[in-house]
Amino acid sequence: MKVGNYEPKVSPHGGYNNFIGFFNKELKPFAMSVLKKDKGHIPIVLTVSNEGVNCMEMADLLSEIDEMDNSDDRARGKQLMANLMKSYIDNEDAYAYVFISECWYANTPKDEPLEGDVRSRSDKEEALAFSWEYKSNGTKKTGSTIVPYYRHDDESIIFMEEISSVTNGSAAGGRFSGFLV
């Protein structure tokens, strides 16, 4: 699969600039344009390998999980989805992957724990979420980007300032990270 102008190849630098360039210049703008045009973005996992980019859409599974009333059942369903993602990524022999989904976002101070389910908060915002991981020169990098957006009455979308984080290794506690071997 070709996404934008990106044709995955391992660079002499181990893929670091290649993947980050792909993410920032091709993938993120493409996903944002899909959301803006279609007024929604189905949850997908993109794997990046020396063979190319492959996609697994997860709309049906995530819809079933989101409709669960019990938060424990939702947590178990999301863990099942994470296990399915890991299995898919392992089978793709990927050096990078990106999970893209819409989400609810609440802006809270870093030192203040988020209590309860974000979907039930009055100060929640819609956002497009990216969770990614890649390996380069024996090191894993994990990151996430949240792009909050405002939806007008006519359904047009205005994107707000993005929030990003990057860590060396696998992100602690992230359900949809730490899948690369």
Protein described:
This protein has about 180 residues and is α+β, with helices and mostly antiparallel strands. Helices cover about 30% and strands about 30% of the residues. It contains 3 helices and 7 strands, in the order H-E-E-H-H-E-E-E-E-E. Strands 1, 2, 3, 4, 5, 6 and 7 form a 7-stranded antiparallel β-sheet that branches. A hairpin with a 2-residue loop joins strand 4 (about 125-135) and strand 5. Helix 2 packs antiparallel against helix 3. The protein is globular, with a radius of gyration of 16 Å. The chain starts with 15 loop residues before the first helix and ends in a 13-residue tail after the last strand. The model is unreliable at about 1-15 (pLDDT under 50).
Mean pLDDT across the residues is: 75
- Report the sheet with the most strands, covering strand number, pairing sense and barrel closure: 7 strands, antiparallel
Written as H for each helix and E for each strand, in order along the chain, the element string is HEEHHEEEEE
> What percent of residues adopt helix (DSSP H or I)?
25-40%
What's the helix count? Answer: 3
Overall shape: it is globular
- C-alpha end-to-end distance: 23 Å
What is the SS-derived class?
alpha+beta
What is the percentage of strand-forming residues? Answer: 25-35%
Query: How many DSSP E strands?
Result: 7
Q: What does the radius of gyration come to?
A: 16 Å
Low-confidence stretches: 1-16
